[in-house]
């Protein structure tokens, strides 16, 4: 089956080349029609207060980065990612499918990564800014609800932010990867089916033509002298002549003996 199909496609190589060209065109059209996606990203660092109990004056908060800050960052991440906060941000014009994940690099520190993807560049950037604001707001609210002294509050500071939304091509590549092979398979299937239908029609025409020739051709008379009939001689005439000749031969033989 596969060998026959391969031979058929080799025989129809011109149509196969045309199908390849059309499939490439379908992939290009898919890239052009599919809108691009934009991505904005920001990183938020959690810092301890600059004043520490038992220490006069301010201290370097980066020297006090510890596991407690990581736990706090994870609590805030869960709070910002819940459905209530997400619905609040969407109502303010944010993108629904934003993402807040921890920075998982080894010794990475208490950092949250905020990412937003959408079809409008400015909307992705606005969404990231709104999520960063909500992170700071919820962090303050959590500490205030725990009656923590205001001077010991942990703060969330934006660490990095993409200056310009990045244009992504993954949706366009995905569309082209589906359109081009799909169009090629469909066209090759049409070539195979069309060729087999044409062959079947040709066989039916050939059979019908042979049948018509068989009906039009006259039936040949059987060969041999036994089958031939003389229209001027009655049946049995040949047999009677032979009997008379045999009788004459016998009479001559009897006369000769006597």
Descriptive overview:
By secondary structure, this protein is α+β, with helices and mostly antiparallel strands. Among the domains are: 19-34 and 169-189, no CATH class; 37-168, EIF_2_alpha (Alpha-Beta Plaits, 2-Layer Sandwich). The protein is 57% helix and 13% strand. Strands 1, 2, 3, 4 and 5 form a five-stranded antiparallel beta sheet that branches. The chain starts with a helix and ends with a helix.
Q: Could you name the key traits of this structure?
A:
57% helix, 258 residues, 5-stranded antiparallel β-sheet, Alpha-Beta Plaits
**Fold-level CATH name of the domain at 37-168:** Alpha-Beta Plaits
CATH second-level architecture of the domain at 37-168: 2-Layer Sandwich
Count of DSSP-assigned helices = 7
What Rg, in angstroms, do the CA atoms define?
A: 49 Å
The helix/strand series, from N terminus to C terminus, equals HHEHHEEHEEHH
CATH class placement of the domain at 37-168 = Alpha Beta
The count of strands amounts to 5
Q: Given the helix and strand composition, which structural class is it?
A: alpha+beta
What form results from the Cα inertia axes?
rod-shaped
Mean pLDDT: 80
**Helicity, as a percent range:** 55-70%
CATH superfamily of the domain at 37-168: EIF_2_alpha
Largest sheet: 5 strands, antiparallel
Uncertain runs are 225-229
Approximate strand percentage: 5-15%
How far apart, in Å, are the first and last alpha carbons? Answer: 91 Å
Provide the fold topology:
Layout lengths: L1 H10 L1 H21 L3 E11 L19 H14 L2 H9 L7 E4 L8 E8 L2 H25 L9 E7 L4 E3 L1 H47 L20 H21 L1
Antiparallel strand pairs: 1-3, 1-4, 1-5, 2-3
Helix pairs in contact: 2-6, 3-5
């Amino acid at each position: 089956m596969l060998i026959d199909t391969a031979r058929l496609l080799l025989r129809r190589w011109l149509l196969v080349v045309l199908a390849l060209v059309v499939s490439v065109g379908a992939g290009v059209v898919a890239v052009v029609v599919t809108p691009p996606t934009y991505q904005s990203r920001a990183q938020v660092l959690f810092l301890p207060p600059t004043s520490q109990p038992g220490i006069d004056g301010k201290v370097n908060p980066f020297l006090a980065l510890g596991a407690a800050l990581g736990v706090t960052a994870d609590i805030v991440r869960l709070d910002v990612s819940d459905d209530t906060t997400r619905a609040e941000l969407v109502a303010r014009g944010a993108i629904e499918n934003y993402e807040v994940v921890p920075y998982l690099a080894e010794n990475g520190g208490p950092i949250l990564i905020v990412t937003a993807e959408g079809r409008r560049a400015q909307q992705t950037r606005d969404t990231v800014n709104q999520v960063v604001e909500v992170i700071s707001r919820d962090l303050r609210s959590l500490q205030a609800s725990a009656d923590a002294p205001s001077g010991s509050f942990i703060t969330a500071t934006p660490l990095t932010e993409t200056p310009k939304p990045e244009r992504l091509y993954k949706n366009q590549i995905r569309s082209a990867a589906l359109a081009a092979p799909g169009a090629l398979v469909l066209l090759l299937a049409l070539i195979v089916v069309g060729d087999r239908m044409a062959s079947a029609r040709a066989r039916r025409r050939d059979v019908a033509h042979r049948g018509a020739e068989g009906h039009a051709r006259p039936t040949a008379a059987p060969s041999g002298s036994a089958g031939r009939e003389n229209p001027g001689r009655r049946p049995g005439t040949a047999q009677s002549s032979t009997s008379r000749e045999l009788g004459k031969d016998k009479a001559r033989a009897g006369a000769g003996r006597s």
